[in-house]
Amino acid sequence: MSEYVNQTIETIFKRKTVRDFTDKPVSKETIEELIKAGMAAPTAVNSQPWEFIVVTDKNMMKEFAQSLQFSRMLDTATAAIIVCTDPQKSKDKDLNYAVIDATLASENILIAAESVGLGGAWVAIYPKNTVVDYMRKTLNIPESIIPLNVIPLGFPVGNEKPKNKFNQNVIHYEKW
Ligand SMILES: Cc1cc2nc3c(=O)[nH]c(=O)nc-3n(C[C@H](O)[C@H](O)[C@H](O)COP(=O)(O)O)c2cc1C
After folding, report:
1. At 49, phi and psi to the nearest 5?
2. pLDDT at residue 113, rounded to an integer
3. Range of the domain at 108
4. Rounded to the nearest whole angstrom, what is the distance from the C-alpha of residue 53 to the centroid of ligand 1?
5. Atom of ligand 1 nearest to the CA of 165
């Protein structure tokens, strides 16, 4: 075991996509703490182009579960964060930077969720155009904003285990 293993690294290794949740609710305070962790992510020229939509309405989440592919976790999630990004605010107003920055915020949210005993997942919206349009319409999101993902949240039932993805073969020293 590496000498650098600490709580942060352990949490990173423990994070996994969680798809089944108990009915214990997640408090607003916790959701805001997770979003705060999202906002601590690095961004190109510190542009912070993100926006976050919090949904706790069960009926709405069930509707998402029916409308989005691979999203059954929204059936049991007790909250969801929709991470959005605004290319008008990103470095050079570049879509790529906007997506990269909001992706980093999303990963922070997923790791922070793991660290407080919650589970989460990345449910894809962008770059599926029909899903982007559906989410814009359903949540009243302006045309200029890109909804990137839905992060369903809740207390895990405990079905999922972290995967060991370490692969020495993809590490190159000095040159490929
Ligand atoms: C860009 C992106 C899109 C994803 N979309 C979905 C999705 O729509 N539905 C889903 O169940 N999981 C989705 N995932 C989660 C992946 O399936 C999951 O991260 C991967 O299988 C690795 O498992 P782990 O997160 O437990 O390490 C997505 C992940 C990423 C990064």
Report:
1. -80, 10
2. 98
3. 12-157
4. 20
5. 27
